[in-house]
Amino acid sequence: MAHFVILSVRNPFEGLIEINSADSATLRKVRGIGAKTVVAVMQYRKLLGGFVQKEQIAELKCVTEENFSKILQQILCDSCKISKIDINFARSLELERHPYVSARTLRRIIKQRQLKGGWSRIEEMTEQNILSEEEAKRLAPYLRFRLTATE
User: How distant is the alpha carbon of residue 112 from its chain centre?
Assistant: First the structure.
């Protein structure tokens, strides 16, 4: 007779709310997120294209330092759910809406894209002084680099 022990497998993410797919009612369940914060989270999530990491929630003015630590314990972030901007083909308006693209950066992107035609990787954008290292680090997860419109 074989002897074995059955162990229960517990999901470490059980009970956490995924902030890129949560609707307003689900976000409202997070302690520290009130009605105004729910609206702010959903609007910012749309502008960003989704959260790459849950710590980005601190970028919202309505999230206090005290609430930030509470919120972090209750959420998780699936960065696979983010929307990417095709840097070589995106319209100016699409780039302009992104919170990490300043007016100065937008002008540089549009001007250089017209002259050069596009980029194949983010490092080219830093080498050409279109983005600072810090801007590139923040923006990289949100960019796609296709060289042709049919890729």
Answer: 25
